Amino acid sequence: MDDSRVFTIEIDSIRAETTIGDLIVAFPRTRDVLMKHGLRFDVEEAGYLYMTLNVFSAIHGLALISFLQELDVASKEMPLPPLAAPVRDKRNSSDPLVHSLKQERNASKFLRQ
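Above: the chain's sequence. Below: its structure in token form.
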């Protein structure tokens, strides 16, 4: 047995029985559709991740077939690229607090003019 394998989730199609957690892992762009229809990621709402799309659509009053079709369209969109790390200006201190204080000082100078 190969213990070096990374855990993966594979979904061949989006069905009423698909859980929200599995769907978001397999198709990250579906998260926006789910949030548009009421998905929240509050600690109190953590159960959403284990909820099936059928139950989610019923709770939120969504027509299941059109909801699944909307998720299917979103699942085919390319994931957004990760945000680039901020570029540091080597002329300024690398300490973020010092940099923040310099920005505040410059802003206050501008406002006094």
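The first helix runs from residue 20 to 26.
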